[in-house]
Protein 1
Amino acid sequence: MSKKNKKPVIAIQSLTCCEGCQVSIFDLGERFLEFLTKVDIGDFRLIESLPDVEEYDIAIIEGTAITKEQKKRLKETRKKSKFLIAIGACACLGGVQELKNYRNKKEIIRGVYPNIRGIDNPDIKSVKEMVKVDLEIPGCPINKEEFFRIINETLDKNQVPKIPQKPVCEECPRKNNNCLLLLGKPCLGPISLAGCGAPCPSNEFFCDGCRGPRENINLDAMKRALKIKCRMEDKEIEMLLERFGKRNEMYKKIKRK
Amino acid sequence: MKIRIDHIAKIEGHASFTADIAKGDMKSARIKIEEGARLFEGIMQNRKDEEIPELGSRICGVCPVVHSLTGFKSIESAYNISVPEPAKTLRKLMMMGQLINSHSLHLFFFSLSDFFGFKSDLELINEYPKKTNDAVKIRDVGNRIVEIIGGRTVHPLTPAIGGMRKKPEKQKLEKLLKDCKNTLPKVIKLSEFFNQLKYPEFTRKTMHASLTSQDEYAIYEGNIKIDNKTFKPEEFITHVKEFQSYDKVAKRTKFNEETYLTGALSRINNNKEKLNKEAKKLLSKSNIETPCHNPFYNILAQAIELIHCFEESIKLLEKAIKEEENIRREPMGRTGKGIGAIEAPRGTLFYECSIEDGITKKVNIITPTAQNMANLEGDLEDFEEMHNFDKLSKKERQDKIKMLIRAYDPCVTCSVH
């Protein structure tokens, strides 16, 4: 995509996280192996150890930078990359590890480690809070089909596409699911960004908003529905909105009247 | 001389290795973990009980199924409820899918290149296109088992306190059964290929820990067998001491002050009589003589288990197809203390929890890699005793060290949780 007759260089890098998004990419199986023949791998530690290359056409980042080394590496990668794409709830929202930001993180680390000296315990930040991000593909884990479509489109058009700002509620009925909220069960479908294909409600699990909020949400209406329809207490609602570190994202995306 | 290996590739997570070698002695061999602390045990506190497994599965994207199920088992043990048999069958199936996808990833894509000196899997793929294709197909069956029963391959959705939320339609189970049967010959062939590889000669005596059961090759449930003694999980854990090592973020464990090994090789050492027919056949053809103390054979042990898991999936699917829909039991109360233990791909995973009125008060998670890390470092310190090690160049030594680290199949993200 960049220079003629040259394969695009792709890096897939992982910061602190479960690496489930990288596993999801690998789960593409034969399609992923075929994809590997069309690109040059600049960095993908899961399958090889190669010296660093100088430029990436696309850097795909999962996880959050917690240690100083990771922060440094993320900044270096940004400098080297034409497009930087953040994937997964950790890179896009902060991930489950961000839950400590909403509590006393010093108390939490003392409960886990008897000796906390030398262990980095910063507030968790999403990738876009540290470097410029060209596109976020959210989810815990990512939807590998959406990911694959987007990466191929980026390579073909030499620009990153946009993810349509629709709620999960638009995808859910197409899977013949009953509306959980109408049944009085909690669900964050109305405010959460679609693109996952609603696997959770299809498996009798509520949408816990792992893809984060879409643009222009009505957070008050969501809270009212959880309170009245689902009889949830305020504290429970806040805990649900915290999951995957999305609470701070919510308030940025409320529709202004 | 110092040996230093930065950023070991082809393991799950980030780690490096250092050792000071004085006169060929691998003193102070250390694995340095390079992951940030996510403080899972801390963030689970004061949240809802079911969030233990829901958050816990996010510890590891390679083995999310076992984190989820062990979390649920600990809660069920705290509430003193047993899940209905048909739900247990489904969970056991999910575990088979978990072992198949994790083992095939590690065997083929992480470890195999070491035997041929390939720097990258791309070389391996070019050299063995047919085998790569088989490995991908085998792994895909494991993924589909998890996806169809668990709702999604990474971070499963259907397990719930007291059982399962949903049972897949019969047709889907029948299709899976057919896939497992059709794939089994491929699995046997690929595993036999692993039996033909040349494994480095290195032994160090250690204790082998795993679940054990009278009824089956223990994965989902059982007591702990170590050093030919058997303990209930709650007893075993009282002998296990977690300690922080020099790199702080990943804890290590010892059993009565000694290092021990957990994982495929330990399971085969402890429970080989319970393996299924074809798996047993390959074991008897192999060079593994139990108790086997060569950690490199953990790779072959996984290959043998891969066959076992396909045979077991066939049995379990036949059972699941016949079983009724009763898959969930509600707890009577939501207060108590419990422990759950399941054999993860890399060894026994423990979740201990204490819950009051449905709110988590305390969680302790002991991962297989935390248990294996001290044993691996012990092996590395003794590594110069490996046949002809002193004759190797620095580069060859580094390669052997990396190969041993990968043979353990460490899950670094699990070790720092």
Protein 2
Amino acid sequence: MEDKPITDQLVTSADWEPLVVAFFCNWCTYTAADLAGVSRMGYDHNVRVIRVMCSGRVDPQFVLDAFAHGADGVLIGGCHPGDCHYVEGNYKTLRRYHLLKRVLRDLGIEEGRLRLEWIAASEGEKVAKTINEMVEQVRALGPLRLTRRFKEWDAELASHEAEAQSEEVATHA
Amino acid sequence: MPDKPKVAFYWCASCGGCEESIVDLAEDILEVAQAVDIVFWPVALDFKRKDVEAMPDGSILATMVNGSIRTSEQEEMAHLLRRKSQILIAYGSCAHMGGVPSLANQFSREQILRYVYEEAPTVVNEQKVRPQPRHQYDGTALTLPEFRGLARSLDQVVEVDYYLPGCPPTPKLLKQAVLTLLSGELPPRGTVLAPDVALCDQCPRKETKPTDLQISEFKRPHWTQIDPEKCFLAQGVVCMGPATRSGCEAQCIQGNMPCTGCFGPTSRVRDQGAKILSALASPISAREPEEIEKILSGIPDPVGTFYRYSLAKSLLRAKVTR
């Protein structure tokens, strides 16, 4: 979890482009994304794919951290129910996803900014389709701009800016 | 004889419980008072802000500030005390993580002021008068601090050296902290002065926590007969223990109430709410979305429950559209 905003130039420029962070399971969705690539299927380049060993590895903190560092949407890709390489990982993800969606809604982040999709290793086309849909949906919702919002919130502290920069260092994992 | 080390206490947006906890040192407070000079403590001693301003910078060995930072005055005091102190300690959940006052970060400044001064059932205010930062009365200028848009933890306003967690911290932890400061052998800057393991590790009910925990229903503590021997999670009662630092001596558990998370997370966790979310949702005994939703409906207010003491320090810090 780096402290540096990943999309500062994107969210501050007028020609905003959506940024979607995608966590893909090594055994299915990541392989399917590979398949989409070797099959020369195009998909929106607004996505940044992060390979994880299982969708169950996606700690809810990863999702919140992606938003906090400038992502406009987060996509999680895992194995179809019953197909998890680690038996239960995708079910755990599903349960957390339902609760995380409620927390996000209560904290003002629209439902369409987080999506969980089951994509098997053979479904390269589904990867391309899901990414394109997600990017369009996020584009319709508009920028989330959390990095910029955080700065705006702290503008009221501006007179003490130097000291305020030290925030969040201490408990950052 | 050289001067005794100087110590100060201050409170910001807090309930007064942290001040109580200092008094709760009971006779040990005599030992502390013998070892240090208390140079500023508004709740108990008659020193004023101008007395602090008159002190040389860095002349106070340690200042313990409790409460979250909500107003411009609290901000100023935080900066003043930072300047005057060699060591600044965030004392209690509010200074540490925003605490209960930072649950107000779910609402805008306007929503809060409108409710408090106009809509609350106990308020009669037909002219809808609101406090103003500046006011002229009889030719005199009166001022009030600004009410900020967010509640903040102390370290979101000034640099903090150490944290004493808890709502409030226990007298035992306070005494340990004071002795550590006086010993001169200081832990690394940024340390939370409590054990760095989850509460479950020190829970008297640890043996009854199933290794294959399954949750088929969430029960609310006030609607449930709670078995005083058995792990709360095994009874379907939301307990923050898995995502909360120990050091409280499991006082709530001993009182047959589940942990609400006031000690904050361990050093490996950045966002306490997300961590307990994970710990509670993963073992739900359902695989279909409808069943999962039904079980989760037993947690009516996830933000208020999971971030009860830590919303200001959470990754999102507040409701992002207020």
